[in-house]
Structures are given as structure tokens and as C-alpha cells.
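We now fix the convention by which a protein and its fold are recorded. Here is one such record, which you should read through line by line:

>
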Amino acid sequence: MSKEKSWFVSWFDTKYYHTLYKNRDDVEAQLFLDNLITKLNPSKRSRLLDLACGKGRHSIYLASKGYQMEGVDLSAQSIKHAQKFAHEKLTFDTHDMRMVYKARHFDFILNLFTSFGYFDDEQDSLDTLISVAKGLKKNGTFVMDFFNATKVIANLKTREQKTVDGVCFKIRRSVKNGFIIKNIQFTDKGKSYKFEERVRGYTYRDLKQLFEKADLEIVEHYGNYQLKKYIAKSSDRLILIAKKK
């Protein structure tokens, strides 16, 4: 792991990241989780980990359904916020997903809302998946909700301007060296800011190869939050369900 401060460490820990994405569709997210729970059918004794949980919206919702949830994220500020909602069935902790959190502890590990592919060194991505496999119990299940990079790249919106809470975010997107890059510039209270998001444009084939190296076998994959068939050219998401080998 590089000692240099990575873009995701700087950007995810600012209040502006949460400002820009504050209008995420919670209803859609909850419907997805409902569909997922129906599909996976975990028992109420199951232990679930929300890996890269952000401020914990998915963890909080699943805990409200009676599941034993743990959420971890690299952003100390996000975890500080999430811990306000903690209770006996819901805990949060700061953690780097490239390392094992709790070995052979979880029945299900969830990695949702494109919380993968951030690393410049692909070994870090593989290390993340190896850590996932080590964190699962025998026959445990891993769920990854990733964007459909094939469609995103084919329909890339190169420029966008969005005003949220009085802050005007100017966004430029590009594709370089296999990464989908988002440059974000804005001014607030007379001070200018510039951040970058970089997500590797993994295809289904790419992820399947990585999963296999980590001893995770993809058993099902879907193309949207209704868990419909994945179609590379048109699906909005790439949702993978894998079993620990």
C-alpha cells in the first residue's frame, strides 16, 4: 500500500463529498436491499458486514430489519457520523478494506454502491477480495454492487454542473489507462477546491478473474437493483453474488 495519501482518503473524508451525493435515492437503495435479502434469505442469526459502508445508510436499514450488522469504512468522519446510530445489533468501525477485518466471522459481506476499484495498483484490489474471502465463514456469501463500466464508458457525460446547498460543482469525466476519472472543482466561502475520483472500469470478465484469484466463485450476476439479467450494453449495474470456495 502506498504511503502517499490516496484520492479516496482525501475526498471521502470531506463534507463536500457528502454534499455532492446527498440526494442519492434512499428508496431505490432500500428496494435493492429488500430484493437482495429475499434472494439471499439470511437467518436473523447471520452476521453481516457492510464493507466500505460510508455513513452507514445500508447498515442502518438492514439492522432495522433485525439483522446483526457491522459496518466499516476508511473515512473516520463517515464512521463518526454512523456511530450515532449504533446499537446492540449495529456497530461501526474505521478500517481499510485491503486488510482482514475479522477472520472467518461473517456469513455475508456486502460491498455496495461502487465501493471498489479505487486503487492504482491492482494488487490492492486483489488484496481486498482476498481479505473478503478470509473474513467469510465456510460457504459464506459475498455481494458486490458495481457500476456497469461498459455502459458508463459508452455513454460518458464529459461535462456536468450541479449546484447543491449553494455550492456549484463543476464536473469533468474522462477515461484514461482503464480508469473512469471524475475531476470535481468548486468554490465555497471564497476558497477553491479540486478533487478527483478514479474508479477502474472493471468488466464482468475482469472481476471474474480477480474473484477466482481470491478463491471466490461467482454464482449469480444481475444488471440492476430489481435483480434482472445483466446485459453489458444496457444494464445500469453489475451485481455479483459469490461464494467462498
Q: What stands out?
A: The mean pLDDT is 95.
